[in-house]
Amino acid sequence: MTAPHTDLLIVGAGPAGMAAAVTACSHGLSVRVVDDQPAPGGQIWRAIETVASTPRLARLGQAYRAGADRARAFRSCGAVYEPQSELWQIEPGFRAFLTRDGQARSVTADAVILATGAQERPVPFPGWTLPGVLTVGAAQILLKTASTVPERPVWIAGCGPLPLLYMTQLLAAGGQIAGFLDTTPRGRASAALRHLPAGLRRAGELAKGLAWSLALRRAGIPIIRHVTDLRAEGDGRVERLRYRTEDGREGEVTAEVLLVHEGLVPSIHVPLALGCTVEWHPAQHCYVPLLDGWGETSQANLFVAGDGAGIGGAEAAEPRGRLAALRVATRLGKLDAVRAERAAKTERAALARALALRPFLDTLYGPRAQVFAPADETLVCRCEEVTAGALRARAVEGRPGPNQLKAFTRAGMGPCQGRQCGYTMAHIVAAAQNRKVEEVGFFRIRPPLKPVTLGELACLDQREPAA
Amino acid sequence: MFRKLHNPGSATVTIYIDGCAVTAEAGESIAAVMLRQPTGWSRTTSISQSPRAPYCMMGVCFECLVAVDGKGSLQGCLTPVRDGMRVTRQQGRRSLSA
Ligand code: FES
Prior knowledge:
heterodimer, A: alpha/beta, FAD/NAD(P)-binding domain, Arc Repressor Mutant, subunit A, 7-stranded mixed β-sheet, 5-stranded parallel β-sheet, 18 helices, B: mainly beta, Ubiquitin-like (UB roll), 5-stranded mixed β-sheet, two-stranded antiparallel sheet, 1 helix, binds FE2/S2 (inorganic) cluster
C-alpha cells in the first residue's frame, strides 16, 4: 500500500492529467494519479500502450500515435499511478475516497487537479435506449481497446469532428458504413466562416477535417444532410431507422447498429459536488467551472484541467494540465512565482493556439435545436425511464426547478446521477417555463459520485476507523 | 452486432456469460465482449423490463451493469475480463441507486 498522503492528487490520466503529473513531479512534488481506466491515455489515447506495439496503430492516425510518447513520459515521471480506481467523494482539505477492486480507501493531498475530461452530449430521440444504439465515442473505444467493429454496415448520425474521424478509422480497419445522417443545420457553414481567419492558425487541423470529408466522399458513402429528426425502431433491438431532414424529406432504412454523436460536454459532476462555481458557456451549450488563469476553481487549491474546463481537445488539455501543476508547485513552495509566470507564458501561448479553431468548430457543430426538445415519447432519463412528455407536463405545474422535478419524477435519481438526462431536463424545464436554460440551473450533485456498495464501505471502516 | 477484427491468439481467455463459455481477449472490457454476443442485450430495466446494452463505453451511462462472480452491479465497460470470470446479465433488477 502506498503512502496515503501526497502533495498533489490528480484525478484522470488523460492528456491533462498526465501532463500535470509530469510537470508537478519535475518540480519535486509528490503526486498521486488515480484513474478509472486500466491504462493511461484518457479517452483520446485509450489503450495506446497496448496498441502501440501492433500493426493496428497505423489505422488509428497520427493524433492517436502521439499518445505513446506521452504515456511513456508519464510512466517514468515518478507519480504514484493508480489505475482502475474510481473516485466517489472528495472532502475539503483534501481527502479523496476511492474504490479499486471492490475495496474502498481514502487518500489525502494538499492540492487536487481534476482532469476528468468530457463525455459525449446525450442525444435523446425515440428509440435511443434500444440495444444497437451507441455513441460514436463508444464505437471508437471499441475499436481502440477491443479491435471491435460493427458486424454489418453501420449508420452514423450526428455532427462534429469525431464522426468524421471514426468513419475514416473504421474504413481503414476494414469496417463498412451504410450511411451518414449529417445533423449539421443548414447555414452553419457560412456562420462559421467568420471565425475562419482566427482558425487559420490551426490550418493543419482544418486540412485534416477536409481530408476526412474527402476520404468519405471518395469511399462513396451516402450522406444525408441537415437531418433534424431521428427515430430508432425494433423489437428489443434496433431494426430500422427513420429520419427527417430540414426540408421535410423522410426516409426509412434497415439498421442493426446506429452510432450517434452531437459533440462533447465537460464532466462537471465532481466540481459541482465540491461546490465549485460553474458558469454557462453559451458557445458550447454547457456549464464550465469558473477558473482563473491557472485553472484554479472557486475553491482554493482545487483545479480543473483538460476538457473538464471547456472543450478544447488534447492539445489544449496538456498546457492546461501544466499550468495547474505550475501553480500548485508555487503554492507548495517548490517554485518561485517569477519562474512560474515565465513558464506559464509558454503554456498560455500553446493553449491559445490550440483553442484558435474552437469558435469555428463550436459554431459549425453546435447542437441542433431538436437535441434539447425531444418528442414527448422519448425517454429522457434512461435509468428511471422517464419520458420527455412526463417531464414537460410536470414542469408547468408550479414552475419546479430541475431538483424539484427530479424529486417528483425520479428523473436523474438513477445510478448515472443525471449524466445522461441533466441538460435535456434543464432545457425542457426552460422551454416549459419560458426561461433561459442558464437561469434554470442544474441538478444538485451529492456524493457518492459513483454508486458504492456496503461491502466496499465496510472495508473502509476496517482500515480507517477514523475516516 | 459487433465483431472482432483479429484473432487474439495466445491472449485468448474464456469467460462465462450466464453460464455460456465465450472467448475474449485479455485486457478488453466485459462490455466489449457482450456487444459481440448474438443476444444483443446485457441487462433489462427494472420498470419496463426493456433490454439495454452498453451505450457509452466510458462509464457515464450505467447501461452496462452486470454481476461478476456473484457480485453486482459492476460497470462492464470499466471492468476488464479475467480468465474464468462469471458474468450474469441483470434482469429487471433495480440497479444500485446513487
Ligand atoms: S457502457 Fe456506459 S457506463 Fe458502461
